[in-house]
Write a structure and sequence with these properties.
The complex is a heterodimer. Chain A is mostly helical. Chain A contains 11 helices and 8 strands. In chain A, 61% of the residues lie in helices and 9% in strands. The model of chain A has no long low-confidence stretch (mean pLDDT 86). Chain B has one domain: Formate dehydrogenase/DMSO reductase domain (Formate dehydrogenase/DMSO reductase fold). Chain B is built from 13 helices and 2 strands; from the N terminus they run ααααααααααββααα. Classes of the chains: A mainly alpha, B mainly alpha. Chains A and B meet through strand 2 and helix 11 of A and helix 2, helix 4, helix 5, helix 12 and helix 13 of B. Chain A: It is found in: Cell membrane.
Chain lengths: 347, 334
Amino acid sequence: MPKGLHLTAIWGATVGSIASAYFIICANSFMQHPVGYVINHAKGRAELTDIWAVLTNKVALAAFPHTLFACFMVSAAVIISVAAWHLYRNQHLETMRPALRFGLWMMIAAGALTILSGDQLGLAMVETQPMKMASAEALYHTSTGFNASFSIFTLGTPDGVHELFSIRVPYLLSFLSTHTFDGTVEGINNLQAQYRAAYGPGDYSPIIWITYWSFRWMMGLGMIAILISVVGLWVTRKGRMPKNKWVWRAATWSFPLPLAAMVIGWVFTEMGRQPWLVFGLLKTSDGVSPGTTGVEVLISLIAFTAIYATLAVVEFRLILKAAQKGPDEPTKIDATTGELLHEATVY
Amino acid sequence: MSLPDLWFLLIGLFFTGYFVLDGFDFGVGMSLPFLAKDDTDRRVLINTIGPVWDLNETWVIVAGAALFAAFPEWYATVFSGFYLPMLFILLALILRGVSFEYRHQRPEHRWKRTFDRMIFIGSVVPAFLWGLVFANLVRGMALDKNFDYIGSFADLFNAYSIVGGLATLLLFFTHGVIFVSLKTDGEIRVRARKLAVRSGAVTIVIAGGFLLATCVAHGRPLSIVLSIAAVVTILVSYIANVRGREGIAFGFMAATIALAVASLFAALFPNVLPATNDPANTMTIANASSGHYTLEVMSWISLIFVPLILAYQGFTYWIFRKRVTRAIITAGAH
């Protein structure tokens, strides 16, 4: 196989992965903020009228870079962890030191872009799903300016309605939601009344303690990962190798942070949409398939959980083994033709 | 031809392509305990499909996605009505897929044998269940006026659908064994040729019987013509195989599977899922399809991407066109 084609193949994989992420986000964004459709009342369904509107959904345009850069944070964390593991053991220095520095820079760059795109996504969310933002802050009453504060940490009664203790940053929620310090952020009670008027009686708020805490854990874990990278760049500046083993342990164990942040972020955005499957159009309770029984769904849930849990353990061990093995020998290149020597067997 | 009719045809083509392609790699997976005498043999077998099985499997994603977008009602009823069979197909494909990747990761005999077993089971289960599902589609199901399936899981297992499952199982098995004879050399090639003669005879009886039953109960002129053509091609494939003409045997076996699947879609047309309880609830191309605009968008996207996918898949087959032998396996680094 010629060298150029070999290179094309890896770029094909990259472009394909990113394109598939974009289309998945477009589908998900339709559920957050449906656009480009018309309701066909005769058939009782939504029908596509404008594919371009779906592909340029303002939620998708913000959520796609947010998800993509978060993925790059996860990759950066894996590079950092593997490189730190080897450097702590003083092996493969010529490969692992540049890898570590690359990973740390990548984490900071991807982290900054995740924050910026997350901010844009927040603005789109306030506009299209104000209930999600209100429940992210557990903001029951509509607030303006100073009072639209962001709580970093709150202890409350178990139902989340009454607050006992809280660390708050005034103006911050106003700024996050509107990019101004005197903006108004609508509260859950107010939105609840609006939705009841529009969609009929019912509860239109998600489970508040999940949205409140998932929003904080997502941001907090992501920020800690970025912070570790900033410190990491500083302590390894100009070829330095810190002696303190805790520096290396922190770097090695940083890989679950962005991964957890990403999973929790999905929990937030999906739980924050509840009780809707497609916001404003279809409730989750109305989306249940009549032809499928509860037992069947239970069987599939148990089967998927069991198989994916088992595979996760096997996969993690295999990745660990591959990572600890260190870099492969350089790929052999045919001296006369310049072609990569192609391995005849894959398995 | 109207757009919904075109998409019925395209979905038929996608499933046909899927069964022809993934069919032989199911067959290779199922043949492991019959053709391999040691680990090298098993690696020869796995490497015959190693570079292509996942390409082959993309066609079921294409077919499923096309079904979802072009015929949302059909998709909803099929995936809810066949919830458990579809679940088992999916789980089997997951286990089979990871087994190809995990098998060579560790040297222990027990590790390898575990994944060999999973490859076998992961090939048998979908090979049988796809036939069961398609037989039930042609036969029809109990549907209410919203096209929701109102039968039970047990109703999916009837004499006709079980024979349908055995028919695809045997077709894919023989297809895969012929593929092994075409893609390997030495003793295993000879063993594969002999096994294909024996399994081919059983396949002709069962698959022929299934097509006959389909023609008698659900036949339409086109489906009967296609079924007869399928029987002719499988006989040609069998004779070619007996005479050691592997390429011809494989080509005609592929044609057999394509014609058989096409005959099932022809038997359905213009319905997509007959209601066995009340003909008024039968799902048709007209009442199950998407809006015109959706189909138009899908047609443009397919016009661009389907040739592209075909081109790079064809290229992959070309790159890996050589026969896989024990010598190549033992010379490899793994």
